[in-house]
Amino acid sequence: MSPDSSSEGSLAVKVEKVTKIFPNGDTPTYALREVSFQAMSGRLTMIVGPSGCGKTTLLSVICGTLGVDSGDIEVFGSNLKTMSDAEITRFRCLNVGFIFQQFNLIPTLTIVENASIPLILQGMPYRKAEEKAAALLEDLGLGKRIRSFPRQLSGGQQQRVAIARALVHDPRLVICDEPTASLDAATGHHALELLKNSACNAERCVIVVTHDSRIFSFADWIAEMEDGRVVKSCLATDYHHG
Amino acid sequence: MLRIALLMLFRDTSKYVMLVVGLTFCSLLMTQQSSIFCGLMLWTSATVRNIGAQIWVFDSKVEQANEVIPLREIEVTRVRSVPGVEWAVPLYVGIEQARLGDGSFENVQLVGLDTATFVGRPMKITKGRIEDLRLPDAVIIDQVGIDKFRKKGITIDIGTVFEINDKTARVVALCHANRSFLGQPYVYTTYDRALQYAKPQRKQLSCVLVEPKKGVSTKELANRISSLHGLRAFERDELFWATIWWYIKNTGIPISFGTVVLLGVIVGIAIAGQTFYLFIYDNLRYLAALKAMGVRMSTLAAMVFLQAFSVGIIGYGLGVGLTSFFGYKVLKAEQPPFFMPWQVPVFVAVVVVMICCFSAVIGLIRVAKLEPAVVFK
Fold it and tell me: Distance, in angstroms, between A209 CA and closest chain B CA?
């Protein structure tokens, strides 16, 4: 089933017969085998599957942090294969927000400084960037902690900072890698709720990689991977039923 | 992003302090040892600086100012006969033994000045009058001598009497002179009296001091005098540098100080390089995350270089500052020798820049190899 067949959103990500091989001595590892995948704006798409099935590799390929051996990747109409490294870097800076599994908040920066990095990268003055980041942190319930350092926050609070950092520059694509892996069930559930409420809008595509079946219910669309291939891609409601 | 880079550095207190301490110690070691070396080399040329004549004439085999091969008295007349000489006077310089009132001995650097002109007189008379040197047994002693005798419980002042090679010497004035390499006090007297104090030898003239006539270049005149058989004339700067280079080439002093300076470089590279590498290593995840978020490699390189040079500048400033404070203190005591020409801080700055570049480059190699996709692992 094609994702646009049941959605009013526009096509955000189009992966076409992508193969990624990691050299591994005499027996190269096929991380992706002619994978085709699409994600639409206005929805939360989850890439699910067991460990080692290629989810994270697909995510890396989509955001241009990893090259491919064959196939095409289009993100918002831009073909990443035809872009130079510098162009891809710039593209990521302007269009992609990241939420990492380990959050990767810089421990020596306050949370407002962490959250303002994408804006600073885009050339916004520090003070203005911090003001905007502080406003978003306030919306996410961390208004009183903006001068705290990441180590002073709980896992859930750190996840909220990571969400703020991913959204502060209003990216069109938000990439989340195992967002609940470092959180307990309740906090993970809350984080996804927050992500869905704050990140999902008609102009934005959110892609979440996870193997945590407890959060599948937050997805609009689910692509299941196995052994480097997308074996199932459907509406979340259909996925749960069969 | 440069502000972010500085915040990352300054707030990592342990590594920041370690880096600054390492570079401070390295700068301090290099600046202080280089300055002491320069000071020591300056001491070797104390006689040249104290006497201050424009042209010095020695035996042709003499290579530096502290080497005395006695000349015949007639050489003064021979030098005076050279065209372009305004005047030429004899000078006696020799190490003699002074016996104090309590029977203890002290070696002194005896300087015999031309009786009529006092050419080569001490630059600063702190008490008494130079003219009194014409009185019987009169000598002028410098502050080093006063301090040395004081340590032996003897106060030197005008009127103090002691013996030089069993002959009476009476202090008529006190002076300040540049300290000699071996730290012996300078004792000034007239040339004739110096010959009486000195142990008898067939030839006793140490050198001839010469002033060129107006319009005659010192170099040209020195060449003319050197063409006389058995004589070698030095311009003042030439003798100054010849003396310093003689000590550099013929003693172990440069190796000794050079080793410590090298140690400073090694300490700097080891501590700063390793700590900075650790700092980068600890931040690799975050640098990779920044790379994934769209930070260009050139921006990351600028961040790393800024971090390296920030600690470099702070460490260098503290190191040179502490050395200057050390110099300020020791210059009052006049030992150990200390002289910090502008070349020393420039040399240390160049070394610190190299250490910072080295540290930044080894950190950057790690960063450059970093795949942004690593943040998803």
Answer: 10
Percent of chain B with pLDDT over 70: 99
Other beta carbons within 10 Å of A45: 23
Distance (Å) from the alpha carbon of B246 to chain A's nearest alpha carbon: 55
Task: Please judge whether A113 and B1 are an interchain contact, meaning their C-beta atoms are less than 8 angstroms apart.
Answer: no
Are B294 and A56 a contacting pair at CB < 8 A?
Answer: no
Q: Does one domain contain both B64 and B197? A: yes
Question: By residue range, what is the domain housing residue A185?
Answer: 3-241
For B245, the domain range is: 51-250
B279, pLDDT greater than 50 = yes
B11, B283, B292 ranked by CB distance to A98: nearest: B292
Residue A225: CATH number of its domain? 3.40.50.300
For residues B279-289, give the mean pLDDT. Answer: 87
Q: What percent of chain A has pLDDT over 70?
A: 95
Q: Are residues B236 and B314 in the same domain?
A: no
Query: Angle between the B2-10 and A111-121 helix axes, to the nearest 10 degrees?
Result: 150
Residue A101, φ and ψ in degrees, nearest 5:
-60, -45
Between A63, A89, A100, which is nearest B289 by CB?
A100
Judged against a pLDDT cut of 80, whether residue A50 lies above it is answered with yes
Same domain membership, residue B256 and residue B246: no
Q: Quick one: B193 and B85 in the same domain?
A: yes
Rg (CA), chain B: 29
Sheet holding A70-75, edge to edge: A29-40, A11-22, A70-75, A78-79
Kindly write down the DSSP assignment for every residue of A37-99, as one continuous string: EEEETTSEEEEE-STTSSHHHHHHHHTTSS--SEEEEEETTEEGGGS-HHHHHHHHHHHEEEE
Residue B244 sits in the same domain as residue B257: no
Are residues B323 and B203 both part of a single domain?
A: no
Of B224, B250, B276, the domain-final residue: B250
B239 shares a domain with B364:
no
Q: What is the total count of domains within chain A?
A: 1
- The ipTM value here is 0.86
Summarised one tens digit per residue, pLDDT across range A9-49 is 788 899 999 999 888 777 888 889 999 999 998 889 999 98
- Give tens-digit pLDDT for B158-203: 998 889 988 999 999 999 988 888 888 999 999 999 999 988 888 8
Structure tokens at A12: 């955000």
**In the listed set B225, B250, B275, which residue is the last one of a domain according to the structure?**
B250
How many domains does chain B divide into?
Answer: 2
- At B85, the amino acid letter reads V
Pick the closest to residue A13 from A23, A22, A2 (CA basis).
A2
Contacts of B282 in chain A (CB under 8 A): none
CB–CB of A98 and B285 under 8 A? no
Residue B277 structure tokens: 């590498």
Do B8 and B108 fall within a single domain?
no
Reduced to 3 states, what is the DSSP secondary structure of residue B219? helix
Residues A156, A158, A163, A168, CA torsion sign: positive
Helical pair B343-369 and B274-282, crossing angle rounded to 10 deg: 30
Q: What share of chain A is helix, strand, coil (3-state, %, to 5)?
A: 40, 25, 35
Contact A60 B285 (CB under 8 A): no
